[in-house]
User: Fold this.
Amino acid sequence: MQEEKTNDRRNFLKTIALGSAAVAGVGAGMFSAPGDRSLAIGVPRARAEGTRYKTAFIQWQPHTVPAAWSKGIEEVLGPQQVIDYELLDGQNKVEVQVSLVETLISQGAAVIFLQPIDSVALAPSIAKAKRAGISVITLNIDATEPHASHVEMNHYYGAMDIAKAMGDAMGGKGKVAILNAPPGIIIRDQRTNGFVDGLKKHHPDIQVVADQVADWDRKKAQDVLNTILAANPDLGGVYGVNDSMALGAVDVAKEKGLLGKIAIFGNDGETAALESIEAGELTGTQYTDVYQQGRLAAPAATVLATGGVEAGAFAQQSRLLMPYVIATKANVGSIQPSQRW
Amino acid sequence: MTAAGPPLLRGTGLAKTYGNLVALDDTDFVVNAGEVRALIGSNGAGKSTLIKILTGAVTPTRGSVEISGEIAPLGDPSEMIRRGVACIYQHSNLAPAMSALDNIYLGRQPTRRFGFVDTRRQRLQAEELLAHHGIDIDLDARVGTLSTVKQKEVEILKALALEARVILMDEPTGWLAGADVVRLHNTIRTLKARGVGIVYISHVLDEIFAVCDTVTIMRDGRVVAESAVADIDRPRVVHLMVGEKLARESADAALKQRRPRGTGAVRLSARGLGKSGVFADVSFDLHAGEIFCLTGLIGSRRTELVRTLFGSDRFDTGTLEIDGRAVAPRTPLDGMSLGIGFVPEDRHREGLMLDMNVTENLAMATLERHCRGPLLSRSGMVRAGRRAIDDLSVQPRDGSKMVRLLSGGNQQKVLVGKWLSRGPRILILDEPTVGVDVGAKAEIYAILRREREQGAAILIVSSDLEEVMTVADRIGVMVSGRLVAVHDAGSVGMADIVREIGGGSA
Amino acid sequence: MASFFRISAIVNMRSASAALALFFAATIVFFCVSAPRFATASTVENLMSGFSFVAILAMGQAFPILVRGIDLSIGAIVGLVGMIVFDLSLIGQLPGYLILPLALLAGALAGAVNGVLVVHLRLQPFIATLATLAAYRGLTYAISGRQLVPGLTTTPIRDPWLTGIETYFDVGGWLGLSRLVNMPWVPLSFVIMLAVFVVLQVLLTSTRFGRDIYATGGNHEAARLAGIRVNNVIIAAYALAGLCAAIAALIMVARFTTATEALGAGMELTAIAAAVIGGVSLAGGVGAMFGPALGAFLLGAILIGLTLQGVPQFVQQIITGAILLAAVGYDRLLSVRRQRRLTAASTAAT
Assistant:
């Protein structure tokens, strides 16, 4: 048992290290192709001495994940005296995000961090930003228009691993339910597909009996799961597509005395979820160091803003997948307080 | 009366029932070309139902309407208009934010292709109409900025622009005074000469004898009499309208029971009251035990004046004393605590809670008396309400009846009763009998006289000279925001008052 | 007599819209001075491209308000029409020139349904359109091609008839002004907005239908008794609001090259705010097209200006609310003042 635990820890640290190295490598490749400055379109990058560079992050809507990204970005950009950074709210509306991008363009921002509400809808704005010489870095949700860089939590493969871990916990058979996000969002599709494909691959005997929308919300998840349980009293597993919904499932299990009988997995790895795992309630979650995700995006932004890489100079968009770990009771203790968000 | 032309409009066997309530019972009604037919009756007699059927606002349960010999489809206002039946309603039916021109052609502007309004033709037609009838109106003025008299003229022009062959006029002079009534009557005579049939609905018998050829009298949903005006006299009309008992009381009311001025102490004394741009330099005394009537044209600022006495509005200059003490009421609550009761002109909008019952309305001004601690005492309210209903003879004698369901006269009694229950030392009434039938009028006068005997000081604003001459002890005449004359009622004739109202120059 | 003054409490449209124009100009000047990079061609461009569809929605919203109603469902109609366009183009593979009229028809129909509910079921407009707001949004999810066909979530609409709406014209270049000063390129959506403005304004002021709208809103009973088919007028007013929502949806789809299920959510409130700021009285019968359109651009200018100043967005929302209150308050002040003047004038006259 002891042996296994240390092993887990070692694996965990190894994953993080390897992941970071991979990211660094991709990053290096990305920036090592200097564009010809004279080819730049739009606002010329030549700036007078003492100019400050403006960067901004347009989030989807207020939530723990973008808040942690923003904190990570600020940690890196804050000490860099020539760079201004601000957090803008997309209010869960495509048109607001588009309008904010355009405002940033006319403001002459250097780099825009963007968590697009929709991959297609923001594409024209990203193209416009590129024409104006502004680099765009997307977080978690990619856009169909190629841009400087995309930094993602690794939704698909993470969800596959969740499926594997859950199946292991269930002994390879039984019924599971998915508490899902509202339709029309890429993350939903990527995570759901990853989970379903993961089950098919690792545990083909496990059957998905319910896939219902719980609006990302803990309270809603409680109601939805109660209904599902009424129809499927022998449910063996629940996958919450984010941690809030998984914690809602934990609430129901606690109330009905089903803790330990149902394997409950979340996604993201926010502090509340990790604590729940430590308390022996939530079975597991996909943990990503979201601060780190912000910290990774920030230096890229610095290079793009101040360095010699032009926004239009990318032959191909870089795609950075964040390292993650499936946190369970066995390894959750190794996630340090400073890594918890 | 000359023999009228061919029948323009003929209703046969018209009936309308609402559940068990028979609003109109098997009524025949004819209007001939070039005839002015009065339609009279107490409230609830079925006049409005008949009118609504003729305008298409209501579909009758039975019966048919022929217009110029053709059966008309019923319950369709636009069809009735198309066939030449227009109605001028008692209350304004204009869109206040639109111009007079647009209102005249409301819903039927002449158009060119694609529904574009032909503004040139519209204006030409309207100007022709104005010239033809000698009416002077600024066609571009927004109707909301016109005086009430002018608004009435806009409504008449609206009917004329229709080339209406039958015009129904519901209380057309309800908001008009003196000279404007005469002016309206002249217009009616012009229309009549051109073969238009007119139905004239009014409570003012003088007007009926002045302008109508024939009269149809209704009571309880039926036509009780039809006659040429020349063949009938006033007592007979009243008799038919209200029935045996009320007719006698009405005759009694004509017996003047005036009191000489100054029987009581001065309750209210105004000296040089003014409100910038509204009225100026108004001085008068109001005594205990008298009825003082303020009369004048619409717009002569009588309402505005009395509102400042009560505290609904404020005066700027002058002094007001009540029982010898200088006061300046700033809110209605101030007025009430000074012992003033105020019955506003528009009982529906300012006076009554239409969807509450009679008892609750009666108790509205005296709720503090019915409080036990923080709670209202229902039984106290009901007792007080029953007493008031008996005193005022509100019909039906049922305190739980919703006020909306009462007739206009009974609503007015409830409103007056609400203030009487406070035992006001000063009672101000603004147009207390507009839209009230003859019988209820007599009852309201009797109530006011009784209060006077008990020492109340009563101030009535009225445009109805018949009413003023009947009920007043003293009469004040207002012209353009000034009180131009005060008379003892016994020593002045109606003709003098009319002259003064008109500006006093003649 | 009292009623005489109540009726006179009308709203003088001209002075209200003059005040709005003045306030708009003052806002622009304020931001030009205080907000960095506000006075640039690209900001003007952003304002035109980002708020033309809001202006169209506001003008549409003015019609239900003019007939003393309100339409809370226009945001949902935007979403529904957007999704219909999405489905027809990406699933149905219909050519854009067929989709355009179908989209407009769908919007007008959705609006007309509101009108029918208000007129024939005698529902309060607020309740009726609150219900259709939920229903249309639900329908949008139900027909969403993004869920019916996997992969469409990441497929942009490329039909030139549809995306062509997001085109910019170098008007300054044609006029030769660009040599003197950096001129914004004018987006087609702004031109469409101007066209909608002209058509609706002419409709309101110069046609029978326009008079009927004012009459119905100003005095419903009078209009009915004047033989105006008030029911049809009201249904038409809601249909126009739906039509405008469809036009706005087309502009948005062109701008985003896709439609999301949540497209237009919450926009009804912006449109109502713009209409009210633009002097359309919620009491009905008063208002025109200039005010709502300018009101939308005023809201837009304030949002962009404050963002450029770095003012947090929740403060922007508070300021928007304050402006709405101020607009209603100013309107009230005008009518009180006019009432006084009228009182004084008629005293002098009599």
